[in-house]
Each structure stands twice: as structure tokens, then as C-alpha cells.
Amino acid sequence: DLLRIDFYVFLLHAIMTATFVALPFLLHDRLGMALTDHWKMYVGALVLSLGITVPMIMSDHHQGRGRLIGLAVTLIVAAQLALTFFSFSAWPVLLALVLYFGGFNFLEAGLPARLSVLADEEVRGASLGVFSSAQFFGAFIGGLIGGRFLGQGRPVDVFFVCALMAGIWLALQGYGRFRRTP
Asked: Using CA atoms, how far apart are residues 99 and 118, in angstroms rounded to an integer?
């Protein structure tokens, strides 16, 4: 279970970094948004996403429950697919970012909480160290993925790859829950 959480945070940060490698190109090149105005899209989406994140956190009173993790990953998949196929104007991009931030922020808070509950006291420090390493390695790999798939000048390719990674995560998360069921 601990290694699964480490892999989840690896994927979360790989997707995040790849997304934010490509997103400025989408906003500037495809939507014609000035670089100095990108913050408005990010802050607006972040504030609106609290309407998703806060209720999820408030309902997640039982640590380790996979249903909300699955919902958060589904939000990320939906956001990445929306960025891939519907990024023709600012409103769909804003909506996609709201979904993305809603899922991301829940997972960013929930995964370390789950890890600290699941880890035995004698290995909790080491477990958190591996978790942090997986987080930073995910960011590194996400940068590589973002740069590689942005090489053709199409940010939507990066978003599609991120949707695939999140889809793999969703499948693994569902498999892990199915496997533990008696």
C-alpha cells in the first residue's frame, strides 16, 4: 500500500509538471493570451476549484477510502481530455483547469495523510522520505515528458499523454481496490 501511494504521487507530479510545461504555450499560442495575463487564468481556476476540493476534503473523514481518490483522478483525466479536445477558447480551458485543480489539490493533501496513517511508526520517517523522493522524481519525469511531447509545438499532445497517465493511475487504483476485496 505504501509503494502504491508513492507511485500515485509520482504520477500526480509528473502530470502536474508536464501540464504546466505545455499550458503557457496553449494560452499564448492558441488562445492569444498575453504572458502577463496567464496568472488570471490560474488564480481564477484555483479559486473556483475550491468548490470541488473543500467538499471532497470535508467528506474524506475515513483515511484510506479509495472512492475519493478515484474521483479526484477522474477529475484529472476529464481535465486533461478537455484540454486535449476542447481548448479552442478560454472558457473550456478555465473549466478544465478548475477540474484539474480540484482533483490535484485533494490528492496533494490526501496522499501524504494516507501515507502517514498507513505507515507503521518505526518506518514512518523512511516512508515519508521515499514519498518525497517519488514526488520530486515525478516532477523531473513530467518535465521530460512535457518537453518531449511539446517538441512538435502541439501542447494538446502533452495533455493527451497526461490523460493516458491519469487513466493508467485510475485503472491501477481500481485494480488495487478490487484485489483487496474478499
From this structure: 28
Q: Indicate the Cα dihedral angle 100, 7, 130, 13, nearest 10°.
A: -30
Q: pLDDT for 10-54, tens place per residue?
A: 999 999 999 999 999 999 999 999 999 999 999 999 999 999 999
Query: Which residues, 6 or more positions from 108, have their beta carbon under 8 angstroms from its beta carbon?
Result: 12
Residue type at 168 in one-letter notation: I
Reduce the secondary structure of the chain to three states and give it as a string: CHHHHHHHHHHHHHHHHHHHHHHHHHHHHHCCCCHHHHHHHHHHHHHHHHHHHHHHHHHCCCCCCHHHHHHHHHHHHHHHHHHHHCCCCHHHHHHHHHHHHHHHHHHHHHHHHHHHHHCCHHHHHHHHHHHHHHHHHHHHHHHHHHHHHHCCCCHHHHHHHHHHHHHHHHHHHHHHHHHHCC
Cell numbers of 70, please? 478515484
Grid coordinates of 118 = 498507513
Mean pLDDT to the nearest integer, 105-111:
93
CB-count burial class (<10 Å; 0-12, 13-18, 19+) for 157: middle
Residue 26: burial class (beta carbons within 10 Å; 0-12, 13-18, 19+): buried
